[in-house]
Amino acid sequence: MALIDVKDLGVQFQTSDGLVYAVNGINFALDRGQTLGIVGESGSGKTTLALAILRLIDSTGAVAFLGDDLRSRSRSALRGLRREMQVVFQDPYGSLSPRMTVEEIIAEGLGVHGVEPGQNRTEMVTGIMREVGLDPATMQRYPHEFSGGQRQRISIARAAVLEPNFVVLDEPTSALDMLFQAQMVDLLRELQRKRDLTYMFISHDLRVVASLASHLIVMRHGKVVEEGPASELFKTPKSDYTRALFAAAFRLEAEPGGAAS
Q1: Average of pLDDT values for 57-67?
Q2: What is the pLDDT of residue 156?
Q3: Distance separating alpha carbons of residues 154 and 149, to the nearest angstrom
Q4: Cα angle 94, 183, 111; round to 5
Q5: Which of 27, 26, 28, 30 has its CA nearest to residue 11?
Q6: Which among 164, 168, 206, 223 could bridge 249 via Cys, Cβ 3.0 to 4.6 Å?
Q7: What angle do CA 196, 216, 32 make, to 5 degrees?
Q8: How confident is the model at residue 239 (pLDDT cuts 50, 70, 90)?
């Protein structure tokens, strides 16, 4: 059974110009332990798709989590599943409360969803901080006292401490330089291996997507242009749009600091 099974998913918004389909007719199944890469130009519907799957915005179609239709559940009934489905956002500073210590930030979800009997919150925070490469001695500090890469590790720790099955990673490396991006990719791989995590990885950085994704979906104007095993798609994209997207991305990476005309 697929961990996530999406059928004919759609999201529409009413605007002054009429109805806009931000996501239209998306279908895919994601097995446990896989990483699904979602790529496409800005405004293609990548983040909207993720928010719809997590039931954070209204949608049409069906989303099943381990065979359980999420759209048939009430908001209150969804609360029990929130621990299983977590998200890491692009801007770690914007998603971390400046008024909370690192310990409070990481442990906040444990307070909402409850701690397993016999487990101590501080011990759990200490353990996950070590696992993501943070010094537990810094848990009483505040987000502004950390670098961008460290703040993103805090965000990952906040999600991972709840022991979810499914994690949406929405541009988690875009604000980092290349060295920290590589470290973040290594961390995500290690957490996936140890915790049997399933990722949906949204990114403009195709180089990072290529290093993580097992399956790839290319989106444009809310629709799937092309999908398939990531290794095959990067090697032999079939659609003109995918070829142009890949060519532009990798050409820019190959020509840093070009002379201005």
Answers
A1: 94
A2: 96
A3: 9
A4: 45
A5: 26
A6: 206
A7: 20
A8: very high
CB atoms within 10 A of CB 94: 11
**pTM (whole model) above 0.85:** yes
Strand partners, 195: none
Pairing state between β 4-15 and 60-65? antiparallel
Place of tokens 């999201």: 11
| DSSP secondary structure letter of residue 89 | -
Handedness of CA 123, 128, 131, 135 (dihedral sign): negative
Residue 255 pLDDT more than 80?
Answer: no
**256 vs 103, more confident:** 103
Amino acid at 118: G
Phi and psi (nearest 5°) for 15? -125, 175
| Contact between residue 149 and residue 125 where contact means Cβ atoms under 8 Å apart | no
Residue 25 has pLDDT above 90, yes or no: yes
- Cβ contacts of residue 118 below 8 Å, gap of 6+? none
